[in-house]
């Protein structure tokens, strides 16, 4: 924990460098959950670097101010380079409709940053019948990734630059205790177990967040395989990325859970959390990966060797499931 917090402090004051201006000129970049926090900061970075940016929002009316903010920060007011599209990650139908609209727009897509996510303290069921954290962070994100992967494969416009599909995860995916998952994998199933209100651990601050990110990591491992041709060449460069501890309102539900948390959350984020600007730079870094970086976990909390050591237990479990 000491080395972890030391690296968080380093990232708070020494940001990841950005690529040169114009690096994404002529490219189209999608950022989901782009109207606040890390998503909004990422939209600003990509727009400033020359990209046409598609921002998703659950409400077009509420998202308009975010779109204008990105244009102002990037200095591209009135150029028509920032677009808003509606997407509700609570609904499979919205994910499907969103991708269909993208196809009809004929804009093409060079980079997709699947950033949308939530933390819930209290049990909430999605309209699809799953616990909402699992629904948004795992199931809908996986569905969206699969739909975009197939479309991006067949709609490549630029044969010199390989498209990127980036899934935002968290260091917390290394935290769950998975020793009992094998028995849950049969009946009623792991997803159903974590979506049953009777199994909701009252008193925990973010019961399904780390679990949802681990399940997403498993899904992305399989998506990485689908992105590679039989000859070993890469159609789409797929990465997971952890922006680190960032001072955003993602933990707002945790802060509202008690008077103590209302005090501790902002203090903790203020001491160790980097800005959204700094956190979103890791999204840009992932979008600049070459084919040799396909499948890489982009983050700064661990070295590659440390991460492989910590993650090996979870990957071994995946192979036995």
UniProtKB/TrEMBL annotation:
Q: PANTHER family, per this entry?
A: DEHYDROGENASE_REDUCTASE FAMILY PROTEIN, PUTATIVE (AFU_ORTHOLOGUE AFUA_3G08550)-RELATED, RETINOL DEHYDROGENASE
* GO MF annotation terms: oxidoreductase activity
Q: Does the keyword RNA-binding apply?
A: no
Instruction: Kindly state which keywords UniProt assigns to this record, in alphabetical order.
Output: NADP, Oxidoreductase
Q: Which residues form the signal peptide?
A: none
Q: What is this protein called?
A: Putative short chain dehydrogenase/ reductase
Keyword Transferase listed: no
Q: Which family does it belong to?
A: Belongs to the short-chain dehydrogenases/reductases (SDR) family.
């Amino acid at each position: 924990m000491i080395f972890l917090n030391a690296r968080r402090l380093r990232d708070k004051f020494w940001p990841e460098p950005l690529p040169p201006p114009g690096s994404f000129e002529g490219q189209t970049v999608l950022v989901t959950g782009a109207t606040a926090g890390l998503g909004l900061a990422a939209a600003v970075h990509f727009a400033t670097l020359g990209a046409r940016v598609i921002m998703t929002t659950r409400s077009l009316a509420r998202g308009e101010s975010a779109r204008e903010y990105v244009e102002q920060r990037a200095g591209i007011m009135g150029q028509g380079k920032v677009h808003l599209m509606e997407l509700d990650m609570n609904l499979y139908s919205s994910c499907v409709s969103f991708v269909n609209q993208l196809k009809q727009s004929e804009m093409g897509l060079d980079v997709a940053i699947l950033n949308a996510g939530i933390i819930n303290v209290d049990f909430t069921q999605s309209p699809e019948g799953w616990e909402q954290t699992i629904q948004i962070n795992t199931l809908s994100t996986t569905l969206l990734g699969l739909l975009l992967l197939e479309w991006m494969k067949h709609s490549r416009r630029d044969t010199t630059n390989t498209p990127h599909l980036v899934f935002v995860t968290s260091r917390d995916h290394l935290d769950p205790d998975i020793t009992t998952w094998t028995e849950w994998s049969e009946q009623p199933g792991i997803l159903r177990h974590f979506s049953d209100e009777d199994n909701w651990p009252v008193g925990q601050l973010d019961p399904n967040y780390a679990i949802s990110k681990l399940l997403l990591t498993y899904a992305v491992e399989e998506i990485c395989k689908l992105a590679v041709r039989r000859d070993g060449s890469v159609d789409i460069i797929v990465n997971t990325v952890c922006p680190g501890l960032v001072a955003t309102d993602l933990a707002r539900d945790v802060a509202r859970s008690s008077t103590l948390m209302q005090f501790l959350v902002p203090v903790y984020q203020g001491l160790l959390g980097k800005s959204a600007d700094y956190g979103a730079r890791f999204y840009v870094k992932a979008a600049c990966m070459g084919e040799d970086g396909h499948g890489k976990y982009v983050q700064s909390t661990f070295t590659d060797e440390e991460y492989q050591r910590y993650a090996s237990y979870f990957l071994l479990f995946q192979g036995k499931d």
